[in-house]
Amino acid sequence: MRLFVIVACLASVLAWSMGGEEQRLPENEPPKKGDAPTIEAWDYFRLTDVGPVLMPMMVRMAKTLKPSVRLSGVWEGEPQNTTVKLDIRVEAEKGGDILIGFFESPDWSAPPKHVRSFPAAGQYTLRDIPPGKYFLGAVMGMPQEPWPEAGHYRYYHSQYMTGRAPKSSGLGVHKSWPRPVIIEENETTNIPLLVSEGFGLGTMKEMMLPWYGRWKKMDPTHLTTIRTLDHEGNPVPFCRIVLLTRQGERYMHFKELGTDAMGYGYCDYIDESFIVTMAQRFFLDPETLTHGYQSIGTEEVYLATDRPFITIRFEPLPKGHGKVAVKIRDQHGRPIQGYYLNIRKLDGDWTGAGDKTSVGLSTPVANSEGAFQVTDLAPGKYKMSVRGFDISAYVTRRMEFTVPREEAATIEQDLEVEAK
To answer: Which of 11, 322, 379, 387 could be bridged to 396 by S-S, CB 3.0 to 4.6 A?
Structure first.
């Protein structure tokens, strides 16, 4: 068994503090009004790659189609003293049954407590959902067939998993996500929910099959197994793995796969030597609609015919003391009150085959002064890009900055984003 460890020089993505109280979305309250624009998940999902945010929800929903789950109380509830009025809206050319899950967490970290199916968009009334706090996720057009549990691939037991990955014609969330909906006894709860083909999975589509634990029959003589773990040895699910094949001294082709819910990934279509040029895990902070990633690449060479078992261990990211505070304005000096921020730190040569690490985040910012700050940054070089919510009105602005090694170092800068 081979092992390599990631040690990055950046604060944990979820520990980064974003400035501007207007960005926070408090529970049971509508978004704040005023000078700054509000941040709504529906608009955000239309304009960004939401694969890391919604793919885990889609995986959880697919597993509710298992016969054992269908026979449980997840699909059929008892009458309750509650009334839920769903207003399901659809933005998609293709239709299909709409599966809606009632989750207990906005990051889809556990299976839904309740699942209901609807034939099309429309208004529906439910009276069998128990009181509680829920986060609604929806999938439209998913084939109505069971999907196997993810687990270790054992070719000598002939436990092959075959078939196509679950598809969908649209994904959705309730309007106030990531704020919960509260269902109370003797009360009527109105829930608008949008299912849209515009909530795209982006590059996540390429990893749908392995993320679901769907593994075709493989050649055991060329079977490479990859396991992704955290620093405590727990599985890290739904990681992106990119392999780079090598012939002699030349690197030839990229091969991409994903790890399943147990952190396993498999490959049997490489005949030569290869390196793990990137292993990537994802983070989600639903409160601020922030998603991020942590990546590593290694120059260690593996031979496919050795049937390697490669363990990738993601260590916690150390916190630093750096802070960047920026005000975003247009060329006339007016604050840009709503924009998307991307910030990343790359160490090593990501154009080559050597060891390298990278961490990044993407988040919407709403602030009447056009200001934001990110704290707890470790020393090093960073790249940042900013584009306005109205992408037709502003160009994308990019900049670089360096966090020095001094304690509590602060970088302050006014950044101009040109209006078109």
So the answer is: 387
Contact between 86 and 123 (Cβ < 8 Å):
yes
- DSSP structure class, residue 335: B
pTM of the predicted model, to two decimals?
0.75
For 80-90, letters b (16+ CB in 10 Å) and e give eebbbebebeb
What is the maximum span of the chain, computed from C-alpha positions, in angstroms?
Answer: 72
Q: Do domains 50-153+165-200 and 207-314 have the same CATH topology?
A: yes
Residue type, 9: C
DSSP category for residue 166: P
> Which pair of tokens denotes residue 37?
């624009």
Provide the 3-class DSSP secondary structure of residue 63: helix
* 3-class SS of residue 56: helix
Give the residue among 225, 258, 230, 228 at the shortest CA–CA distance from 242.
Answer: 258
End-to-end Cα distance, the chain:
55
Q: Which CATH number is associated with domain 50-153+165-200?
A: 2.60.40.1120
Closest among 39, 41, 43, 177 to 100, alpha carbons compared: 177
Domain locations in the chain as residue ranges? 50-153+165-200, 207-314
Full pLDDT tens readout for the chain, 420 residues: 333 333 333 343 334 434 433 333 333 333 333 344 456 788 878 777 667 678 788 888 888 887 777 777 889 888 999 999 999 999 988 888 999 999 999 888 889 999 999 999 999 999 999 999 999 999 998 765 544 444 444 433 333 333 444 567 889 999 989 889 999 999 999 999 999 988 866 555 555 555 655 566 777 777 899 999 999 999 988 888 989 888 777 777 888 888 887 888 888 888 888 989 889 888 877 777 788 889 999 889 999 889 999 999 998 876 788 888 888 888 888 888 888 888 999 888 777 667 888 998 888 888 888 898 888 888 888 999 888 877 677 778 888 988 888 777 788 877 778 776
CB 417 within 8 A of CB 336: yes
Q: Does domain 207-314 have CATH number 1.20.1600.10?
A: no
- Give me the residue label for tokens 């890290």: 236
Cβ–Cβ < 8 Å for 34, 368: yes
The CA-atom distances, in angstroms, between 98 and each of 61, 108, 170, 195, 257 are 11, 18, 9, 8, 28
Cβ-in-10-Å burial (0-12, 13-18, 19+) of 120 comes to: exposed
**Spatial contact of 155 and 75, defined as CB atoms under 8 Å apart:** no
